[in-house]
Amino acid sequence: MGKTIIISNRLPVQLQIGNGSITAIPSVGGLATGMKSVHAGGDSLWIGWSGLTDEEIPEQLVSDIDKALAKHGSSKVNLSKEEVDGFYFGFSNRTIWPLFHYFLEYSEFELNSWNTYKAVNQKFADAILEKADDDDTIWVHDYQLMLVPQMVRAKKPKIAIGFFLHIPFPSYEIFRTLPWREEVLEGLLGADLIGFHTYDYERHFLSSVRRLLGLEVSFNDIEIDSRTVKVDSFPMGIDYKKFSEAAEKHEKSTSEDLTDLQQRLNSHKESTPDAKLILSIDRLDYTKGIAKRLNAFEYFLNKFPQYKEKVRLIILAVPSRSNVPQYQLLKKEVDELVGRINGDFATVSWTPIWYFYRSVPFENLIDLYTSSDIAWLTPIRDGMNLVAKEYIATRTDKTGVLILSEMAGSANEMNESLLINPNNFEQIADTLYKALNMPIEEQQSRNAVLQKRLERYNVEKWANDFMNSLQDQKARDAANVSRRITEIRLNGIIDNYKKAKKRLLFLDYDGTLAGFHTDPQKAGPDEGLYKLLDALSNEPNTSIYLISGRDKDTFTRWFLPRKYNMIVEHGVWLSENGEDFRMLENVKNDWMEKIRPVLESFVDRTPGSFIEEKNYSLAWHYRKTDPDFGNLRATELATVLTSLIGTDDLSLLSGNKVMEIKSSNVNKGRASMRIFGEDDYDFVFAIGDDWTDEFMFQELPPEAITVKVGSQKTQAKYYVDNVNKVRDLLSKFVE
Ligand code: GDG
Questions:
Q1: Burial of 110 per CB tally in 10 Å (0-12, 13-18, 19+)
Q2: Which of 237, 449, 620, 681 could form a disulfide with 504 if both were Cys (CB 3.0 to 4.6 A apart)?
Q3: What one-character DSSP code corresponds to residue 581?
Q4: How many other β-carbons are positioned within 10 Å of the β-carbon of residue 218?
Q5: Alpha helix (H) residue ranges in 47-198
Q6: 592-662 belongs to which homologous superfamily?
Q7: What is the 385 CA–ligand 1 centroid distance (Å)?
């Protein structure tokens, strides 16, 4: 196995330039720690932007910087101020960030920043390509680099690429407003594995892929260009040990070791022993709901005035993206709100809000977590929110109450905390009241469960799970590749064909010989296909059978004049050498009267779907429906039909966007075996694209050459990519 290349907007190292020299200090952020197990030793490389623009780096320091970064296994992508403005502050933070957090009104759709985003993504991709070998594994992080997977894939089709999105993926209704939505999806689909924090983000993404790109999604696999892209959720954890151990150490520290902040916190506690501390920590970002939280706090103080002088809210707002206008406005709003609320409520001995607009060192973070009775986190939208997890990890005696917004990804895993809707002030005020009065035993029993979970699914496990899943996915794809009909295999098959004395070929029609059409009646054969089938039928000692689920009237029109052998309606009817169809299986169709009304009610309720009535089967087609809705209805119909047909000799076939009900003793496997039994064939070949063809693949003798169209799971021995490849393959037989 090759090396691992991690790629993110920022490197896990901070550069500091002073007195003409350079120092590189490793960052302590969650991602950097989480990736420790992945980014270790000499066989991994982290590529990203250093945080300094080209203009900020003195020329004489360029090579020193590269050396300093190399010591930390890092390599930088050079960006000019203009590029950072367009790519990072522009498209990433003024378009994608607000849009993906449902702040549609903040999203700017600027062609220039999109172009810069594309160009800078290409720079990152080029930086990878410069260093990458085919057996390397690439892990791309976050919304700044969504086009990178496809850009790398275009040049290195075999390489393993994973992508993880740290922010929410919004619902299709929001995502579709983006003018470059298809490009973004296609960019992401260059990966082999795409990871999200939660299942909701995953299903939003899958829904956009289905609706905007029209791609087939089965469970969480997407088929694209004969590759399978897997989509899954991996809720990111924290470095649990680091936080719990820091808290234990903090607990044991003597008064001389205490930080200034801790001393201030202690003196507050001593002066007002019955007053509780409520903590909130976030980057100053409109998604974090800081202004709303302040309003809610005011609401709480008015609703429960007995808590005046009995609670203190500590707000740590970490400066962020301060050159984006919305962040400047937010800063102003929060400053004013804190000023007003403090002005309205303060007494001589009490200020309700302590507000810090800065980032603090790690020790102070621990001071704050361990000293606070309540952590109050109310993001309006948050991909995960690690602060919630960190607070719980530092509670060594298991006391403390976490109040967390339902809109944070972490709420999915932290059900034992008090979950709130950040827009519901009444609920928030009542929840604060409940938290302030929660018995110690209850706090401990809730936190015990949370701690156990967080300790187990920590950030290292998260990173390893993602990497293992990426390797599995790659292995799965490689297994498929080994079954694709390669040049060598093809030559072998043709050789056997030529040598054989008596040949039998079964060819499925829709999705195999001809592409799909939203109206099945329009998917008739073209001249090229007739020519090919004529040539095949004229081969000596060769029996060709078209084998299809289609009705006999359509095939009579299309193929009877050509005298092709045909098996239709999955094996009910047979026509050979231009003779009229005769029944191959004795089947009944009196059940149709019962089933038709059920299908009709589904047609009424599912725009775009329709019923196809054949002599011995009924099919409900939903190719033209809204994809998500169609799939939903198909599941519903399957449930209804399964209970209805339970006692009859009927079976339900679910094909490609079609559900068909027919007699159980009819299928393509049985039909093909009957033909096979009639003579002594030494070359048997069957090709088809959907579930109904699997009966042939399963039942024909093991020496038969069975071929699936498309790379989905199959019993067939080989697969080819699409209809064009099928025709190429068949024309080789008659060359
Ligand atoms: C994005 C997504 C997702 C905060 N203040 C200080 C400080 N921090 C540390 C915390 C925590 C991290 O920063 C913040 O992480 P969050 O998850 O809360 O939020 P975002 O920065 O918005 O991160 C988010 C995350 O990516 C991971 O995928 O959870 O949803 O928006 O680790 O401890 N650290 C120090 N001083 C501070 O003042 N030292």
A1: middle
A2: 681
A3: P
A4: 11
A5: 62-71, 81-83, 97-100, 111-131, 148-155, 172-175, 181-188
A6: Trehalose-6-phosphate phosphatase related protein; domain 2 (3.30.70.1020)
A7: 7
Write down the residue that tokens 């201030």 correspond to: 264
- Ligand 1 mutation pick, 327, 378, 386, max ligand atoms within 8 A of CB: 386
What's the pTM value of the predicted model, to 2 decimals?
A: 0.80
Q: Are 198 and 190 in contact (CB under 8 A)?
A: no
Please, are residues 410 and 384 in contact by the beta-carbon 8 Å criterion? yes
Give the catalytic positions in this structure. 508
Amino acid at 453: R
Helix (H) or strand (E) holding 296: helix 290-303
Report how far residue 90's alpha carbon sits from residue 94's, in angstroms, rounded to the nearest whole number.
5
Q: Is 27 in the pocket of ligand 1 (CB under 6 A)?
A: no
* Cα→Cα distances 169→166, 209, 230, Å: 9, 12, 16
pLDDT at 499 over 80: yes
The 10s digit of each residue's pLDDT in 420-473 is 999 999 999 999 999 999 999 999 999 999 999 999 999 999 999 999 999 999
> Do 367 and 262 form a contact (C-beta atoms < 8 A)?
yes
CATH architecture of 487-585+666-733: 3-Layer(aba) Sandwich (3.40)
Question: Looking at residues 40-54, what average pLDDT do you find?
Answer: 86
Residues 489, 719: Cα–Cα separation, whole Å: 11
CA-closest candidate to residue 403, choices 439, 427, 382, 381: 427
* Domain segments of the chain as ranges: 4-233, 240-456, 487-585+666-733, 592-662
Spatial separation of the C-alpha atoms in residues 431 and 433, rounded to whole Å: 5
Q: List pLDDT tens digits, range 302-313.
A: 999 999 999 999
**Whether the Cβ atoms of residue 300 and residue 307 lie closer than 8 Å to each other:** yes
Q: Which fold has domain 240-456?
A: Rossmann fold (3.40.50)
CATH fold of 4-233, please?
A: Rossmann fold (3.40.50)
Kindly state if the Cβ of 413 falls inside 6 Å of ligand 1.
no
Which of 278, 415, 468 has the alpha carbon at shortest distance from 355? 278
Give the helix ranges, DSSP H, for 606-667. Answer: 627-644
Cα 409 to Cα 415: distance, rounded to the nearest angstrom: 11
Residue pair 618/612 in contact by the 8 Å Cβ criterion:
yes
Whether the Cβ atoms of residue 592 and residue 618 lie closer than 8 Å to each other: yes
CA of 282 from ligand 1 middle (Å) equals: 7
Q: Do domains 4-233 and 240-456 have the same CATH topology?
A: yes
∠ CA(78), CA(83), CA(84), 5° rounding? Answer: 85
Please answer whether residues 142 and 164 qualify as being in contact, where contact means their C-beta atoms are separated by less than 8 angstroms.
yes
